[in-house]
Amino acid sequence: MLSLKRGFNSFLERVMPTGLYPRSLIIIIAPVILLQGAVAFLFMERHYELVTKRLATAVGQDIAALIELRAAEPGKENELRLERIAREKLSLLVEFMPPQPLPPTRPKPFFSIVDASLLREISDEVKRPIWIDTVGRSNFVEIRVDLGDALMKVLAKRSQSYASNSHIFFIWMAAASAVLLVISVIFLKKQIRPILALSEAAESFGKGRDAPEFKVKGAREVRLAAVSFIDMRNRIERAMEQRTTMLAGVSHDLRTILTRFRLQLAMLEESPEVEELNRDVEEMSRMLEAYIAFVRGDGSEAAAATDIPAMLDDLKRGAEHHGVKASVETHGQPTAMVRPDAFRRCLQNLVANATRYAKRISITAVHDGRKLEVRIDDDGPGIPAEMREEAFRPFLRLDESRAQEAGTGSSGLGLAITRDIARSHGGDVTLEASPLGGLRAVVRVPA
């Protein structure tokens, strides 16, 4: 039983649409269709067949009476009199013809309750071989009865033989259902609109963009979710603001101390020891800036349409300034909605890392209208596959001796800052093997 339930749930997950709006439409439309089908079946099975049975029985009794009257008084004159009586009193067009075989049965519709009911009821009344045609004529039902010495041909109006106005019921039922469905769709759109607004606000906030203001409206549960989101967003923004304010004070105090060190060193006579101390102070200053930048982030910057090819050309010139051969290739739309300074810093960290350890780098950008992907390849030593994810951990140095080379200023935060910026845009950064033989860094962000 449990496996059957799981299989049914799995089947529903495969066939059901993923969106809330189409799922809600199915929830509304499916019961209506099932109800309409049940009502139509009951109508056809009960009312429609009952009315048809009664009408067919009446026609069969009229035909049986005419046959008995003909048998009681044979002759052509009596047949003409019966034809006139049938036409004037019974609304039947009757013709007594010379004996001949009954025509072959014409193909009937696959679902023909009328034919089955007519044939059954008239046969029960007449008790003779008969042939019925409900297909050939538009306004009449043709009935032929084999009398042995003659063939009786009867044309009866369709409304006289079976219920022919049932289409009015189906039209009314379909029209009422259509009106109800239109009202339901309008109401459903109104109920889903606040959910879509909340989703757009959450998506914008998750991408690091200014979430659009939206009114808290809709059902009680939707309003509660919207209020919770607004409270969460405000708490996050307050926490980021408090952290930035605190770090601004800390950085000011530390910069004051470093400035004092520089002044004291400047007052000393030049010597190898003083030069070494100056390098240490500069190293401490760079590390301090990296730490503060990592913790502070760039959440306060607003997203704007940014010229990606121009940004990549600037990064290329910077790499070439350090003696590295660089190339840039772009595909798709030239602009993307990103935070310009933050995104430049994200790419700059990757380019600087490649420049430090490689002699050749290649920068490729692809923008398909929905997401922006920037690939930075180099021919350096690369990073082992098992350590590529570890490289994003803050303060981690994969090569201590290389990281501490003079002038590198490595603090173990470059890749951590890069991933932090990419994720604040709603994207991510991954490391792969490069076709150039070194490392490939891939930045993907929605744009």
Automatic annotation (TrEMBL):
Bilayer disposition of the protein: Multi-pass membrane protein
Record keywords: ATP-binding, Cell inner membrane, Cell membrane, Kinase, Membrane, Nucleotide-binding, Phosphoprotein, Transferase, Transmembrane, Transmembrane helix, Two-component regulatory system
One Pfam family, short name: HisKA
Gene Ontology cellular component terms for the protein in this record: plasma membrane
Enzyme Commission (EC) number: 2.7.13.3
UniProt keyword Kinase present: yes
CDD domains: HisKA (cd00082)
Presence of keyword Transmembrane: yes
Domain Histidine kinase: 249-447
Catalyses which reaction(s): ATP + protein L-histidine = ADP + protein N-phospho-L-histidine
Location in or out of the cell: Cell inner membrane
Positions of transmembrane segments: 20-44, 168-188
Molecular-function annotations in GO: ATP binding; phosphorelay sensor kinase activity
Enzyme class: transferase
Domain HAMP, first and last residues per copy: 189-241
Name this polypeptide is given: histidine kinase
Source organism of the structure: Ancylobacter novellus (Thiobacillus novellus)
